[in-house]
From TrEMBL:
<feature type="transmembrane region" description="Helical">
    <location>
        <begin position="325"/>
        <end position="346"/>
    </location>
</feature>
<feature type="signal peptide">
    <location>
        <begin position="1"/>
        <end position="20"/>
    </location>
</feature>
<dbReference type="Pfam" id="PF01925">
    <property type="entry name" value="TauE"/>
</dbReference>
<comment type="similarity">
    <text>Belongs to the 4-toluene sulfonate uptake permease (TSUP) (TC 2.A.102) family.</text>
</comment>
<feature type="transmembrane region" description="Helical">
    <location>
        <begin position="119"/>
        <end position="135"/>
    </location>
</feature>
<feature type="transmembrane region" description="Helical">
    <location>
        <begin position="74"/>
        <end position="107"/>
    </location>
</feature>
<keyword id="KW-1133">Transmembrane helix</keyword>
<feature type="transmembrane region" description="Helical">
    <location>
        <begin position="254"/>
        <end position="274"/>
    </location>
</feature>
<feature type="transmembrane region" description="Helical">
    <location>
        <begin position="280"/>
        <end position="304"/>
    </location>
</feature>
<keyword id="KW-0812">Transmembrane</keyword>
<keyword id="KW-0472">Membrane</keyword>
<dbReference type="GO" id="GO:0031464">
    <property type="term" value="C:Cul4A-RING E3 ubiquitin ligase complex"/>
</dbReference>
<feature type="transmembrane region" description="Helical">
    <location>
        <begin position="366"/>
        <end position="386"/>
    </location>
</feature>
<keyword id="KW-0732">Signal</keyword>
<dbReference type="GO" id="GO:0016020">
    <property type="term" value="C:membrane"/>
</dbReference>
<feature type="transmembrane region" description="Helical">
    <location>
        <begin position="393"/>
        <end position="412"/>
    </location>
</feature>
<dbReference type="InterPro" id="IPR002781">
    <property type="entry name" value="TM_pro_TauE-like"/>
</dbReference>
């Protein structure tokens, strides 16, 4: 992987260390306060800790506008349709458009908008996956969805979503905004450079194909067509034509993915009937770790032993090392955390990651969307149990994104067929991530300024005292 991915990993570790330092200093601050009054020259770090993490500090109250027909619904539906169409093409989900639309146009608060965005991402992912289940790989005799790749990433993605949803309740908006801008700028740049590289390779292939077609056309004027039993058979290349779903789906891998989803769903539903922050609450949270890690390790061992293979570009196959598998699992976990925390699809990390593996753009988009279908639906269940979005609004925008994704998939297939350039998917992926960095970042900065001017609490929330 490139240096950008190591920078992202280092950033996440640094933020964790900083949070731990602030938490430790906060504990010392409370202990010293109970023992004796603080002197006037209190350290700056302790002041920050006191302000950023108050024991009972909380200011969150959801804002759900009434659902009535008007210009807000019309304009929001337009941008929601655009986000659903382009998000399904790039495999990024469209959350970078959904969240600002729900916040700035419809009028939801940022955290409710993130939850609503997950509903829309789920609707777009379901329709896209249904279309992709019948398609073949562009160059190999295999489905367009790489089931071995998604089986390695998706369990860790689901675990990350659960962590991200908890972080969505705890983290202050300013921290979310900073992490979002840095992460999305890095991944969008990485995807754009990959798109330029793919475009150049496609240009070479197209020119070579034109030369071959000219030579063949000249030869066929003087050479009769081959006939008889010894004539060479016609070469059949894989295409994107639809085939039977029953033959095209790898049901064993699909069953393992469903098992992970059902296990997580059962744990989340059970957790809803247990007091928050109780012993059993944290036990159920920790039980998600062996489920996700167990399935991911099962796939990783198969890849190391050669029993399973992740297909890459052309007819080559990617041979992964132990440190690479651990890194991909970690990035899958981070993609889930980002998805649950920010209300985006997780494709912002998975898309560039799959492209780095050499996966063709069509397969990258289809595989990322397939993984997002599971993760987004789990997020929707968790947000519903936390009462984070109004159901009527969620149903309306989910159906809107469902049909928008169908339109987007049909249009992009036509364009790829006409132009012969699958790099369009990579450029759309890069554009969506880049737009998300500015749109979500702009909304976050606007909220920060609003809270600063009103002298509101901007620290960490207490999940044990959360009340939607």
């Amino acid at each position: 992987m490139g240096r950008q991915w190591h920078a992202v990993a280092a950033l996440c570790i640094s933020c964790t260390v900083m949070a731990a330092a602030v938490g430790a200093d906060r504990g010392r601050l409370f202990a010293s306060t109970a023992a004796a009054p603080e002197p006037e020259d209190v350290s700056f770090l302790r002041k920050v800790a006191s302000y950023m993490w108050q024991k009972d500090g909380t200011t969150y109250h959801h804002v759900w506008p009434p659902m009535k027909f008007g210009w807000k619904i019309v304009l929001g539906s337009f941008f929601g349709f655009i986000g659903g169409a382009f998000g399904s093409i790039g495999g990024v989900g469209g959350g970078g458009i959904f969240v600002p639309m729900l916040t700035l146009i419809i009028g939801f608060d940022p955290k409710s908008a993130a939850a609503m965005s997950k509903c829309m991402i789920m609707g777009a992912a379901v329709s896209t996956v249904y279309c992709n289940l019948k398609l073949k790989h562009p160059t190999l005799d295999m489905p367009v969805i790489d089931y071995d790749l998604v089986l390695l990433i998706q369990p860790m993605l689901m675990l990350g979503v659960s962590i991200g949803v908890i972080c969505n309740v705890i983290f202050p908006n300013w921290l979310v905004t900073v992490l979002l801008i840095i992460l999305f700028l890095v991944t969008s740049t990485k995807a754009f450079l990959k798109g330029v590289e793919t475009w150049k390779k496609e240009t070479i292939i197209i020119k070579e194909a034109e030369k071959r077609s000219e030579q063949i056309s000249e030869e066929t004027e003087y050479t009769p067509l081959p006939t008889g039993p010894d004539s060479p058979a016609e070469t059949i290349t894989p295409s994107d034509e639809a085939v039977s779903i029953w033959k095209n789906v790898h049901w064993k891998e699909f069953g393992l993915l469903v098992f992970v989803w059902v296990a997580f769903l059962a744990l989340q539903v059970t957790k809803n009937y247990i007091a928050t922050c109780s012993t059993w609450y944290w036990v159920l949270n920790l039980l998600q770790i062996p489920v996700s890690v167990g399935v991911a390790m099962y796939e990783a061992v198969g890849l190391l032993q050669g029993k399973r293979v992740i297909s890459s570009k052309a007819n080559d196959q990617t041979s992964l090392k132990v440190h690479q598998l651990l890194l991909y699992c970690f990035l899958g976990l981070m993609a889930g955390v980002v998805a649950g925390l920010l209300g985006v699809g997780g494709g912002s990390i998975m898309g560039p990651l799959f492209l780095e593996l050499g996966v063709p753009p069509q397969v990258s988009s289809a595989t990322a969307t397939f993984a997002m279908m599971f993760s987004s639906s789990m997020s929707v269940v968790e947000y519903f149990l936390l009462n984070r979005f109004p159901v009527p609004y969620a149903l309306f925008f989910t159906v809107l994104a469902f049909f928008a994704a169908i339109v987007g998939q049909r249009v992009v297939r036509k364009l790829i067929g006409l132009l012969g350039r699958a790099s369009l998917i990579v450029f759309i992926l890069s554009m969506m991530i880049f737009v998300s960095a500015f749109s979500l970042g702009g909304v976050g900065i606007s909220n920060m300024i609003h809270k600063i001017t009103r002298h509101e609490y901007m620290g960490f929330e207490n999940i044990c005292k959360y009340d939607a």
